[in-house]
# Entry
Amino acid sequence: MFKWDKLSWYASGIFVAGIILGIFNNNFFGLMIVAYLLRPTILAFGKGKRFADERQTNIQFQSGNIALTVVIIAMFIFNLIEQYEGRPGDKYNQIIAIALATKAIVGLIMLRDYKTAGFRSGFFMGLLLSLFTLFSANFEPIGFLIAIPGFLIMLLSYLGLKKPMPISVIFGILGITAGVLRGFFFNGNNLPMSANITTTIIISVPLLATAFFFYKGALAERVSDTEVLES
# Structure
């Protein structure tokens, strides 16, 4: 049973602000979305648990998964329609990629097994990068040479299970370097800014997330070893 609480008042205030803003201009839709997503977003980040019971939290979780699936399917359909009409639908692919990457990274964080999370995020990023390169090169021999960075990322991810701290540093350097290089590359291509930003996010964020996972895994190992020695 839904209960009117402090979050409800906050959401209502934002909603009313959106209506008032809509009287003067058309930039009110964003506030409407914020008002609607306020409660589920706060609950998803583990805050405001006193404002929802287990049943409400479970409903938010299930409805969020269904909504994500519907949005991705809709974007895929819109992409096909725009391609059929002769217009590029890349913007939909970019949003889908960001949404799926976010879901994957958040899911790994919730595992609380950071070394395993680091291995999975790094390994699958390397695998997808290698496959994308090989498909782009039609699996010609030169494609396997270009795909070496992806294979190295997979190998580093495996080594991270044994040596998480040094591998964390390596992934951190790779993530920062990739972001900086993409920043310089912005001015040297004719791609839209959204495509450049999306590519940077898709490349840099998983690398930095993998570095974070291995770093947390290394800290957890040190704490565990300290507890064993003290006992």
